[in-house]
Specification:
- The structure is a homodimer of 337-residue chains.
- By secondary structure, chain A is α/β, with parallel strands linked by helices.
- The first copy, chain A, has three domains: 53 residues, 434 Repressor (Amino-terminal Domain) (Orthogonal Bundle); 124 residues, Response regulator (Rossmann fold, 3-Layer(aba) Sandwich); 129 residues, Rossmann fold.
- Chain A has twelve helices and twelve strands.
- Chain A has a six-stranded parallel sheet with strand order 2-1-3-4-5-11, with helices on both faces. A six-stranded mixed sheet of chain A has the order 7-6-8-9-10-12, sandwiched between helices.
- The longest helix of chain A has 16 residues.
- The relative contact order of chain A is 0.12.
- The N terminus of chain A is likely disordered.
- At the A-B interface, helix 4, strand 1, helix 5, helix 6 and strand 2 of A face helix 4, strand 1, helix 5, helix 6 and strand 2 of B.
- Strand 2 of chain A pairs antiparallel with strand 2 of chain B.
- Chains A, B: GO terms for molecular function: DNA-binding transcription factor activity; transcription cis-regulatory region binding.
- Chains A, B: InterPro entries: Cro/C1-type_HTH (IPR001387), HTH_LacI (IPR000843), LacI/GalR-like_sensor (IPR046335), Lambda_DNA-bd_dom_sf (IPR010982), Peripla_BP_I (IPR028082).
- Chains A, B: This is Substrate-binding domain-containing protein.
DNA sequence: TTGAAAGCGCTAACAC
DNA sequence: GTGTTAGCGCTTTCAA
């Protein structure tokens, strides 16, 4: 179906102007919602736009306005983890959904391990208006001074100044509350499967664990480390059990490791929660349907993504934005504790 | 740090040309790998590019060349599922990784339910060179004739002509093999939790289930439907058990529903695989660490994403590409069967 | 093999 | 309020 015999590709602003009987500038004004246009002109333009099925060309708009209306989502190449981890997946989902309601477009930037400077150069090349970083594993944030606004998920590694606003949950206090819950249930030999200690969530949840036990006067030496994967949780749990000391509760730094621990606990012929009560962290999709359903710390992951997106948009558009946003967690008590 | 006192923002091609002592056209040729440039000129330009830390401006390039070097990843607004589903997450990961090795950029397009035409208009607006569609729930693919190449994950709904190349696994035969495995293990009362029957994977896996049982002369009426979520799996399993007829095996149309079924089976005081053998589909991250580890059909999800990406790039660049790619599945036998 | 020049489709002063 | 006029930074004929 040919819309306009004289045009070859998509209709241009010029075609709209001609059809509406106004100048290109006026069409541009209407498209961009300028208030200084006569109502009748607005109507004429809108009708022409509809008739022609006109869509502004992003590249041209961006070139002329020096804005790209594009936001980069920066994920590490070890993206396996980013997407396999339901928590990150929800954060991404939150970002994407929030942005879908704006005029911004999301582009995914995988940090190439082969060429670590690629990401930074792309950001500095004026191709995006801002960036969202959803991992903290690396401390080499060479893109921090990309000259454009950046928002980070999770607090920066200690010592590293935050390069921009952060959106996070209070991991330490949330972990502390989770462990206190175990203590209140009468558990006295509480172990933990901590996360990697080069990542803030790993560090902070571990700190919360220790705080809770020390406050209760309990031993806090039943510790093994995992890398947030189910398999690492299973391995860590086996090591804890092999110590041969009594354990009546476990705090896992995330749900995936908790689920991994489930299998090790079962292998050992122990039952949950009778022999060992388990609490996780994240409240991912699988925790509610685990057997038994997992008590865990719920993080508002979709909201975190949405917050990051809206903070970034505020920054890009020159509005004020909080430099550190802490979203509330809640302990979801199910049958594992 | 000011690289070049005379320039304000990022260095332009013009600045590179000046520094290298050549024309802008020559710089453009070098950047785009033209072979008709003298080696010494190439070197001079490359050095200038390095010194200036020059990055081509995408918008300008796209405007002039009428190519965008951008590929859209189109996901339904019910993106909750897309990202919560580890299978889709891996597919996306495969797409992203494959594209990271090319000059193409991935932009995520969420199909707005509020304005269903938005996606189509964006695609038709010349903003991307091609699109990858990773869901088939909707039959309204209004973007099929967006005038740009499109690649689809999974075969189209019956009747709907494929609007472009598809990448898929042979769901029917894979399901059939999974069920045959149960039959070979001596199971005779095989139930299934099928997926939604408006989605090809749901349909095809169900068809494979029936085929296998009919070929074995067994009853194929133990069927309940779920929506691929763990919760729906649990509910469906409960309904199956409530029928009061003997069941000694279950084929779930995906792992998430299989895991959901696990809890219903346990609630009923039955054990896996002694009382009921279970086989899933997808081989997602959790299946190996489930208790017991789940026997399942492994899909090469990352490869599927990568295939979609490379097929799309071939199409965009005018190369031939297969219209239907079927990737191999393998039955991973673990302890649940 | 290289340069000059003409746009790509749009925005943004600046006049009117 | 609206039109005119320059470009935004790059690619791409066309000549040389």
């Amino acid at each position: 179906m040919v819309e306009d015999a004289s045009s070859s590709g998509a209709p241009t602003l010029e075609a709209v102007a001609a059809r509406a009987g106004v100048s290109r500038a006026t069409v541009s004004r209407v498209v961009n919602g300028s208030t200084t246009v006569k109502p009748e002109a607005i109507r004429a333009v809108q009708q022409a736009i509809a008739e022609l099925d006109y869509v502004p060309n992003r590249a041209a708009r961006s070139l002329a306005s020096r804005r790209t209306q594009t936001i980069a989502l920066i994920v590490p190449e070890s993206a396996a983890k980013v997407f396999a981890d339901p928590f990150f997946a929800s954060v991404v989902q939150g970002v994407a959904l929030a942005l879908a309601r704006t005029d911004y477009t999301l582009t995914m930037l995988i940090e190439s391990e082969a060429d670590p400077t690629k990401t930074g150069r792309y950001l500095r090349g004026g191709n995006v208006d801002g960036g969202i970083v959803v991992s903290h594993h690396e401390s080499d944030h060479s893109y921090v001074d990309a000259g454009i606004p950046m928002v980070f998920g999770g607090r920066p590694i200690d010592g590293g100044e935050s390069a921009g606003p952060t959106v996070d949950v209070d991991n330490r206090n949330a972990a502390r509350a989770a462990v206190e819950h175990l203590v209140e249930r009468g558990r006295t030999c509480v172990a933990t499967i901590a996360g990697p200690q080069d990542m803030p969530p790993g560090l902070d949840r571990f700190a919360g664990f220790r705080e809770a036990l020390e406050a209760a006067g309990l031993d806090a030496s039943l510790v093994e480390f995992g890398d947030f994967t189910p398999a690492s949780g299973a391995i860590a749990m086996r090591r804890l059990l092999e110590r041969g000391v009594p354990i009546d509760a476990l705090f896992a730094a995330n749900d995936q490791m908790a689920i991994g621990a489930y299998s090790a606990i079962r292998e050992a012929g122990l039952s949950i929660p009778e022999d060992i009560a388990v609490v996780g962290f994240d409240d991912d999709v699988h925790s509610a349907t685990a057997v038994p359903p997992l008590t865990t710390v719920h993080q508002p992951s979709v909201d975190m993504g949405a917050s990051m997106a809206s903070i970034l948009v505020d920054l890009i558009e020159g509005r004020e934005a909080p430099t550190a946003t802490l979203l509330p967690t809640t302990l979801v008590v199910r049958q594992s504790s």
